[in-house]
Amino acid sequence: MKKLLALLLCLMLMIPAFAVAEDVEITLWTYPIGSWGNEETVNGIIANFNAAHPEIKVKVQYLDYASGDDQVTTAIEAKTTPDIVMEGPERLVANWGAAGKMLDISDLWADTKDDIIAASPAVEAACKNGEGIYYEYPLCMTTHCMVINYNDFEAAGALQYIDEATHTWTTENFLKALDALNEAGYQPTAVVYCGGQGGDQGTRALVTNLYSGQFTNADHTAYTMTSEENIKALTLLQTLVNEGKLDADPGIVAGDEIALFCNSTISIGFCWNASAAVSNKASLADDVKVFPMAFPSDDGVPELQGGIWGFGLFDNGDEAKAAAAKTFVKFVCDDPSQAAASVYASGFFPTRASLGDVYAGTEKAENGDYAIFMPFLGDYYQVTPNWAAQRTEWWNLLQRVFAGGDVAAEAAVYETNANK
């Protein structure tokens, strides 16, 4: 109750700073972050907001990851950007923020910074640039993981190779599990998808975890795929594909791979998280028992790719709309009657420690089980420059490697292009 009263007081203090005129209309563009890509869900959130702020109208446009970036780029060039966009630091901070297109929203952090840091210091660090200017106000976060069909592993005698309590395994045991699945006739075991950037967090984590490699240098200024550890990992995957123990497909992305897992075609999926568990529940074949896993690592201690999502404000030169946009963002993220529901809609976890488990006692209660992976959150390297171009270079690298290219040479090409 004390926390609730304190939060209410903070919100009351913030109101004068964001006072808006009557009948202001703002636009929100949102990428499909869990149910934030669902019109009915978002309309419900806006209705809650309008109950408190009838003077602010919110128009929404829904983006996807196939064309969304192009739509934003076109809007920037035409000077028709939305007032608010919902996505992660790689776009809000490292891309549009670095290009000078976003508003400094450091004022939004005044009363919640400590609560956010308590949830994860990595979140606070990722939401600001090198000069300490905040371009993102975070709502939710997750660690991406992989997934296995428990039933297939049990039938193949491969459960001995995973730690069921911690949902972790070593690289050595991952290889033993692949052998057991193949020998038991579970083929294809898994597919390394490389038809585009969709779900590339899974393939990146697969490569870097196998031998504890790093995707970038420590200060996030360069991509480091030519390290000894990463070359070793790519070579191993190439060998496994050549031996028929894994498949690689240049024609599919993560969504296609998830469908293959859900319909029981493959026993292992490399693109999974708490939100995916909920959104794909209805499509699971009867013989699929979902068991999420961390990526295999040589030392058994994974470093998982993280996801952080929140809101940024484009600098459109309209102070009234900017104030209204800030009011909306604070309501969605911090209002005591709305914040938990906003996170719940994402399927991920709150970036405020005070919110606790937003899934307990709900139909998404199993989402809380994925919190076991949060301590394995690794470096948030998506803020490295040239991120968007790097993503294209990444799946092109995988295609060349699995087409038989020399691993070291192809990694050098990737690194040269990604670091331009």
Secondary-structure map:
Blueprint: H1 2-14, E1 24-30, H2 39-52, E2 56-62, H3 68-78, E3 84-87, H4 89-97, H5 113-119, H6 121-126, E4 137-143, E5 145-149, H7 150-155, H8 171-183, E6 191-193, H9 200-210, H10 228-242, E7 247-249, H11 254-262, E8 268-272, H12 274-279, E9 290-293, E10 306-313, H13 319-334, H14 339-346, E11 349-350, H15 387-402, H16 407-418
Parallel strand pairs: 1-2, 1-3, 6-7
Antiparallel strand pairs: 3-10, 4-10, 4-11, 5-8, 5-9
Helix pairs in contact: 9-10, 13-14, 15-16
Descriptive report:
With 420 residues, this protein is an alpha/beta fold. It folds into two domains: 2-142 and 306-376, D-Maltodextrin-Binding Protein, domain 2, CATH 3.40.190; 145-303 and 386-418, 3-Layer(aba) Sandwich (D-Maltodextrin-Binding Protein, domain 2). The chain has 16 helices and eleven strands. The chain has helices at residues 2-14, 39-52, 68-78, 89-97, 113-119, 121-126, 150-155, 171-183, 200-210, 228-242, 254-262, 274-279, 319-334, 339-346, 387-402, 407-418; strands spanning 24-30, 56-62, 84-87, 137-143, 145-149, 191-193, 247-249, 268-272, 290-293, 306-313, 349-350. The strands form three sheets. The protein has a six-stranded mixed β-sheet with strand order 2-1-3-10-4-11, with helices on both faces. A three-stranded antiparallel β-sheet has the order 8-5-9. It has a two-stranded parallel ribbon with strand order 6-7. Helix 9 (200-210) crosses helix 10 and helix 13 crosses helix 14 (339-346). The chain is globular, with a radius of gyration of 22 Å. The N and C termini lie far apart (53 Å).
